[in-house]
Structures are given as structure tokens and as C-alpha cells.
Amino acid sequence: MSCCKPKSWALWAAMTCLIVFLSACTLGSPSPLPSLLPATAELLPSVTSPPPHFTPIAASSATVATSTMAPTPYPPPATVVTPTPASSAYPPPITVGITPAYPEPARSPSVAATATQVSERPPTPLPPFTNAPTPLPTSMRPDGISTIVPIMYEMHDWENVDFQRRFPDWGPLGSWMWWSWAQIEPQPGQYNWSMIDAYLAQAARYTVTLASGEVIPKPVAISIEVYPDWGMDATPQWVYERFISDAPLLGGQRVGWVVDPDGPDGPCAAIGVPRWGDAAWERRFDEFVMALGHRYDKDLRVNSVWIATGLYGETIEEKTLNGCRYALAQGPNLAYWVLHLMDTYRQAFPTKPLFVINSGGWSIRRETAAKAAKLQPPIGLKLNVLAPDLSDAYGYKSLAGGGKIEVVNRYSDTLPIAFEHAFPPRPADAYWSIMNALAHRAVLLDFNYPDMFEVIKSIDPIFPLWRFVDTHLGRDATTTPDVWILLRETQHPASLYQEWSSGEYGDWHFFLTRPEGIPENNTVAITDMRSSEIPAPARNHIYGAHSTRRTDQATGNRYMSFDVDNRYLFWGQKPIVVGGTVGYRIEVVLLNKGNDQISLEYRNAAGEWVSRPVNKGPALGPVDDWVTVTWTLHDAYMNDALPGGADFRLDCMGDGDEYIHRVRVEGFRWGQ
Fold first, then answer.
1. What are phi and psi for residue 85, nearest 5 degrees?
2. pLDDT, tens digit, for every residue of 255-270?
3. Are 177 and 160 in contact (CB under 8 A)?
4. Strands 380-386, 354-357: parallel, antiparallel or unpaired by DSSP?
5. How far is CA 261 from CA 50, 275, 325, 344, 608, in A?
6. CA distance 260 to 271
7. Is the pTM of this model over 0.85?
8. Which stretch of DSSP H or E encloses residue 369?
9. How many CA atoms lie within 13 A of 388 on its CB side?
10. Count of C-beta atoms within a 10 Å radius of residue 115
């Protein structure tokens, strides 16, 4: 669950009034729908369009050359060359097969006894849809799957900020904006599209410059909320008044269900939730989503649609507030409806990138992810949980398969992944969380304005994080400019939670891995950064905020070996010194502790060992702090020729262990 949500009823109302004022609140005519939905609330058939290509703008493809050189044994380097420096430990837990955990609920459940008033009025029939055409925007595109703009987005951008003009030194930013069902359909079949259209028209006048230099209109993602904040049932009142005779009254408004943890006489306040699980309510919302898709599926001004369902738009089934535990889902009703709604959205938006916000409980997260992968085109996963180290990243026993990162790791190669922040606006938290997102193949990030963006920009003197985000969001092994690995370990082992859950074990890697099981390569994870092993300056640096790894020369493990993904554009290419065109820059962030040496080792095209040692100490940079060392190589031949199929390794030289935070490899062509 995110730490930054819709601010309050007052802000929501103010935002609504502002938008209404700007757009004059013109009610549009009912839109013609491609076809009416079935009369029941059963699952809708999914469309059969070809799968989407979630290719980021300015991405490129590459042909990867392969090598036939076989790995060699484990001798120490025989050839020593003078250096020219410049100043997953554990595999993830096994994921079990996915089986539905929710039976289909009764479609007409009764209201629990609460201190509410129940209406006995019979429902008023819905007037039939007419086919009077509604004018559509001119910014339409032909059939086909649109692509996601892989940048950071501002959550709740109700101001519709021209970021590039207001903050020219920031990187590219898009917007996520939402409206409530009640705002857009104030009467049955009458849609107030003017609010959304006015927002999109304004955003289209702004420009965003991508990392590639391409200039595009400001990207916008949209959502329709039915439960945007605590107790805020955003269902139009006419739905309850006309179609659900037993909809209870709470605070003078009809709501779907009343949730009161301790009854009318207890201290816990009663709240309302939408009427998920009710066939009449679901039917009305299905019709609304189909109308929404008919209008905006091919609208170029909408870059993607995020499927909002439960509290805050997330699949939250229960929540504690002021010591009171609220069951918001009404048994399995929310889960069943979310799965159903994913079909409806995909039918309504056959060509638009969709994300389901599935940050809720273990089972619903597992099942929505499985459903997203089966739809055609598939639906992306958006988790509003981004943090440096999640205690429930993986699940075990009955929770297996539903961990927050466990779900991402299962589908990150096949589905687009997005994150919203759940970390405070502090430099160390921002750095570690964003590296977490990138390592898990995020295509977009949804953050709060302005706090998060100011913090991200403030890190530039240490590391150009925003630029790093822009060059790695949405990239794969063939399109990334470089490959990297961040050496770390979780602070939430399974033993801490009685083997029910844990954090994510091992390194975070972006197409650069540290193979396990290679002799003399076992590492030691440092999770207590307050340990005497870590000097105070390094401990207080953003790199030292969470964990790191070191060699273990005391047990004969003096190396850390690394393997470049064979799909990387520069892997297996002939080096410059033997007539090829490829060189490498290898950047290592290490702890400058002691006056010993560290060496980078690899093989050249002749199969000879090459060692490039560097002396640590004051000449290398701040002592007892993290420093960045870069080797520029014109003779390295990366073709899995090191022990264990690795491409290069770091050697502590037996004169003191090395503490490594991050390793990055960037290939380049001769003359670059």
C-alpha cells in the first residue's frame, strides 16, 4: 500500500470543482457502444487481438554474436597487465503452481445487520442506450497496440503541471490522473466526458523530452475510481436508488455495503464500501467501462489505463485503522469482481496498454497476475509497494506464489511491470527503491510530486539517478545501454516470520549476474551496516544504507565473478586490439578501506588471463567511504570463458577483503 493517497474528501471535492469549472461540466450524449454486454454478470470473453509489444520509445534491436570458446580451468592469472583505472547470492524461493483460492460468491448477498436504514423501493429500470453519436477527439490512431512511454509519472496530477517548463533541469515526467465513476456518469447512460477531455487537451499542449532526445506530448495515464479513499464509495447514487433496493444509508448517502467491525455500539466507526459482488452493481459498472473504452481506446492522448478497484484503487481486502480491523472485501466478492473486471477492461480497451493495480492480499495478487498473463493482449502489473527491502517479497506454505516481488519475478519477462512508491522522500530510500524497481524490469514509476522528484534530482552529485532511470526503464538485454548488478541481501529472512514469508534473497541484477557455486567465489552478506566492518563514512553514505557483500579470503574465497547476459549487444564481440570494434568500461563501486589492492581479471581474445590491479588508499578517493573505480578495456573478450561461465571477476588479491556495492559494464564501439 502506498504512503501517498488521495488527500481527503475536501481535496477531492476541490479538485472536482476546479476541473468542473475549467471544463464547464458539459454532459455528453450517451456514446454508441460496439455491443451491449451480456445480461448477466458472468465473466466476459477476452478479445483475441495479437499480444502487445511493450517496446519503449527509442528502443532498438540487436543481433548478438556468439562464441565457440569453451570455459577453461581455474588457474590464477598468468599474464599481468598494468591497469589504467579512473577515479544472486541465494536463488529466489521456488514458486508453486497457481490455483484459484476464491469460490464464486453468491451473486445477491444480504446486508449485514448494522445501524443503517434500508430502502424498500423497487429498482427503477435503466433507460435503454441510444445510438446518438458522441463527437470523438481528433487525436485518434489506427488499429494496433500502442506502446508505453517508459518514464516517471506523477500520481494524482490534478494540477496538470507543465513539468518541462516549470522544472527544466528535471527529467521527463508524465501524469496519472483519476476521476470517479460518479463524476463521469451522473445519470444513467449520460457521460460527462468533458472533464477528461479538457485534461487531455491541456496535457497535449505540453511537451516532454525523452532521454533519446525525442520530443513528445506529455504522456497521461488515466483511471476510474470506485473507492478512491477511506469510506469514499464513488458509485453514482442512481445505481443504488434505482437498482439495489437494499442499499444501506450511511451519513445521508447510500453505499454498497456497511463495514462496522464492532457493531453499532462499539468505538469503531462504520464505513461504506462499493457493492462488489452484486450483479446489478457490476452490470452497471461493466456498461460504464465499455463506454469509457469506446471513447478512449484509440485516443493518442491516453498512454495507458490503470485498472482501479478497491481502496485507493488497489486490491486491498482488509485494513486496520485506529486499531479497528475492517474487512473491505465482503468475503470473496472483491476478488471475484476484480478478475471479472479485468476481462471487461480488456474487452473495452483492446489496443490500449492496461495495468491492474494488484497490491492487495496474497491470493488476490497471485490470481490477478495469472489472469493478466492469460488475457490477449496481456495486462501489466502495477504494485504500489516500492521500498528498499520488502518483508513480504516472497511467500511460503499457503502464501507461496503471492509475494509482492515473487509475483513480479514470475512475470517480469512477459508482462509490463510498474511501481508506485511506498518509501519516504529520503535520498537513501529513493536510491535503493528505484534500483529495486529497475532490477525488476519496471517500465514506469508512479511517484508523488514534488517531494520524490526533488529528492531524486538531489542525488545527482553522487549518482545521476534520474538519467539512470530514463535509460533503463522498459529496457531488455538487447536494448539496455549497459548491464549492472547491485550486491545486497534482505534484512527480512524467512526465519524472522516463522517461515511464512521473507524478503527477496540475493543481489539485484540487470542482465549482469554473479553465478553461484564457482569455487573460491563464496561471498559474505553484510546486512547489519552498523557493524564495525563498515566505517562510519561508508555507513552514512546512501550506498551503505541497507546491505552489501564482501569477499571471504579467510576461507579461500578471494573472487567475485560476474556473467554478462549473452543477449547484450556487446557480448561475444571481437575486441579492439585484435581488429574488432568493441571495448568495455567496467565501473565498480567499492569500499576504499585499507591500502591493499583489488584487481579486475578477464581473458583476452587469445584466451590469456589479464589482471589489472588498483591500489586503494587516499590516492583512490575518500578513505573509509565508497569510491567508484572505472577500468577502460580494449582487449577484453567476453564469451563465458572464465570458471563457471563467467566473463570477468574481481580479486581481493589475498591482502584484505573487498566490499562491493555495484558493478556496471558498458560496451562501446571504437571511436566512441
1. -80, 160
2. 999 999 999 999 999 9
3. yes
4. parallel
5. 46, 18, 6, 32, 71
6. 7
7. no
8. helix 362-374
9. 21
10. 12
